[in-house]
Request: fold
Amino acid sequence: MIPAEVPERRYAILAEGWFTNRHAKTAHGLIRYGKDEVVAVIDSTLAGRSVLDVMPELERDAPIVGSLEEAPSPTSVLVGLAPAGGRLPEEWMQTLRQAADAGLEIVSGLHQRFAPEFPGGKVWDVREPPRDLPLFSGEGFGVQPKVALTVGTDSAIGKMTATLEIERAAREAGVRSEFVATGQTGIIIAGWGVCVDAVVADFIAGASEQLVLEAADRGADLILVEGQGSLGHPAYSGVTLGLLHGSCPDCLILCVAPQDEEVFAGVPRPAVARAARLYEEVASLVKPAPVVAVSANTRGLDDAGAREFMAAVADETGLPAADPFRGSSGPILEAVLEAPKTRPTRAQP
Amino acid sequence: MIPAEVPERRYAILAEGWFTNRHAKTAHGLIRYGKDEVVAVIDSTLAGRSVLDVMPELERDAPIVGSLEEAPSPTSVLVGLAPAGGRLPEEWMQTLRQAADAGLEIVSGLHQRFAPEFPGGKVWDVREPPRDLPLFSGEGFGVQPKVALTVGTDSAIGKMTATLEIERAAREAGVRSEFVATGQTGIIIAGWGVCVDAVVADFIAGASEQLVLEAADRGADLILVEGQGSLGHPAYSGVTLGLLHGSCPDCLILCVAPQDEEVFAGVPRPAVARAARLYEEVASLVKPAPVVAVSANTRGLDDAGAREFMAAVADETGLPAADPFRGSSGPILEAVLEAPKTRPTRAQP
Reply:
């Protein structure tokens, strides 16, 4: 689950021509939330400037350089964005070959696997699932730390970032917490994890359970699991439910957004209160996990609009609502800390 | 999706020492429900007897012989049961090598893959998913035939057999119907299908949708999809939900059994009415699919007990209940035929 070849990474981020592209969210996530050092971003179109100069919201600075040679002693090169059409352009592959020849690790969250391209090199294909994953065993039912999982009314609604912000707030409050990454960007940020949508279907729950057991072994008192997909997304709901049951959460944080978008053509986002109730009901077939707070992604609203939306959501659900990107994760963290541990359904009093 | 190497199979079933074992359900299913011919069962401990002599409930006869040489011109050898511990014993592998040398096809539903063992031979590893499965596209929303899916209060509760019996009843009633196989035994019976629990998690719904599109291409007016797992089974619920959304059913048949068993240690079977309501609610996040009938597996009950159980279930749910293994699939088929086609949630009036 944890690639051990490079214990302390120093990243050069390969971002030639696209560093400020919004699809470069793995690069941005690594800079803002990553535990590892970022020694440089490689993008010759911005060479000489700095990360905070170009994207102040990333909160951590690094030089932007024109080539790999100019990056100050990296251990690892991140490939964070696939161009439309799939395979990397030959120019990027040249940089990666140069990195491999220099003994650097290549880290990729793309669907394309790089290990076969660089035989003998250090390659971390983040989406590649571990071998010999077990089926769900039930061991997760007995885990000691409290487990909270983010779920959503849609996919791509900000579950990963909400989880990271709440985990950061927990650490700042002195709670021994652990972020459990279940997708490629989260894994690169955390340095460990499993892409639960990349495992064989029979093992979604088993992989999710193993992640929680691993987080418990790391000494956490509070485990915050990054959710995936949505219970009502026809393409990804299987992954969502396998993660919901497999990670054995004690409580849920429901991630919502104000836009009345469709989850999928013909399929609307469910109402917030209905989504909360359904997540709870489906979870409680196995183990109760009440929704204790709503994380509202209010990007695009002004302050007044955001306040209004959060008040409406709180009113609809009777739950605390906050936007961890705007202001504070406090009310959400408080609700999570107050939630009790739960036991499997049969064992309920 | 359909291995084309052997268009009309004539099976020899390799069952040395275990033909009457209850775990040999792939062999039994192929004999009772299979579209392909079965020319012999190989089990030297029963040689000279016949299938109906030993297991009359299988409804189709074939000679039991002591060795592959005695089987009358098979095209294919089925390996239907894995011994405890995993790999096949050397004695069985010898028979398979002999079959491969004779140009016969080896058909296996085991987790172990046989293609690498017999390079150049004809091998159908039934659990091996097709390459290049697409993500869910929504094309299934527009499929013309009616689609019914079996779901259950538990895994291993008889969904496959119920689906096969209802499909047989439909054919006997003159309905152009197609059984959609989603697990290894069903696939060997039908001669095509995909093990939806063996695909990469992201593709559960896409694989399920492709199966329904394929069944529609085959000219069916009624598509009966074999369900997998259970919404409340912590190990398999992801596969269950991916199949529920991906196959775009218009209605559901809920499979139940009288035993008050646990789904998983600590996790009870849900009450029948609650399970029905939850399946409907989760389906309707994407596309409504009402539960229109209950298929009761009353094995182990006497006739009076079975009638009593079916009456209780019908009373609890307000739905027709029948045991397709005992008496008739008629009430279930009737309810399915009466159910309307449905459209995705946004498109509802």
Residues 155 and 229 of chain B are 4 Å apart (CA to CA). Chain B touches chain A through 48 residues (CB under 8 Å). The two ends of chain B are 36 Å apart (CA to CA). The longest strand of chain B covers residues 146-152.
